[in-house]
Every structure is written in C-alpha cells, then in structure tokens.
Amino acid sequence: MNADAAALIGAGIACLGMGGAGIGLGTIFGNYLAGALRNPAAADGQFGRLIFGFAVTEALGIFSLLVALLLLFR
C-alpha cells in the first residue's frame, strides 16, 4: 500500500468523528428536552451546560474535519 492510499484511508477514518459529533448533538439536545419537560423549573439552570456541551461536541466534528483535510492536502 502506498502513502496516498494510506492518507485516503486515514482521512476516511478521521471523518467518522463528524458522524459521532452529529449523534452526540442529538443526544445532548434530546436529553436536555426530556429533562426540561420533566422539570421545567430547572431548565433555565441547565441551559448553560447545554450550550457548553454543544460547543465541545461541535469542536470534535470540526477537529476531525481538519485532520481529514490535513491528510488529504498535505
């Protein structure tokens, strides 16, 4: 296997992180909504944690895209 094929395989594996980030975002917002429906009074107190979780999960997807692009266009 040559270096170009290995770079393409690595870029494909790095792109799996973007799918994981999408699943993570759905889980984060779904759990927040379920908790807010059970206890509406506590929903405002958890909103900051929701936004922080969103930012960290979205950063994972962006970093995996960056790694894939670095492998493709080296």
From TrEMBL:
GO annotation, cellular component aspect: plasma membrane; proton-transporting ATP synthase complex; proton-transporting two-sector ATPase complex, proton-transporting domain
The keyword Transport belongs to this UniProt entry's keyword annotation: yes
Stored InterPro entries: ATP_synth_F0_csu, ATP_synth_F0_csu_sf, ATPase_proteolipid_c-like_dom, F/V-ATP_Csub_sf
Domain of life, per lineage: Bacteria
Keywords: ATP synthesis, Cell membrane, CF(0), Hydrogen ion transport, Hydrolase, Ion transport, Lipid-binding, Membrane, Transmembrane, Transmembrane helix, Transport
Protein purpose: Key component of the F(0) channel; it plays a direct role in translocation across the membrane. A homomeric c-ring of between 10-14 subunits forms the central stalk rotor element with the F(1) delta and epsilon subunits. F(1)F(0) ATP synthase produces ATP from ADP in the presence of a proton or sodium gradient. F-type ATPases consist of two structural domains, F(1) containing the extramembraneous catalytic core and F(0) containing the membrane proton channel, linked together by a central stalk and a peripheral stalk. During catalysis, ATP synthesis in the catalytic domain of F(1) is coupled via a rotary mechanism of the central stalk subunits to proton translocation.
Protein family according to the UniProt entry: Belongs to the ATPase C chain family.
Designated name of the protein: ATP synthase subunit c
Source organism per UniProt: Prosthecodimorpha hirschii
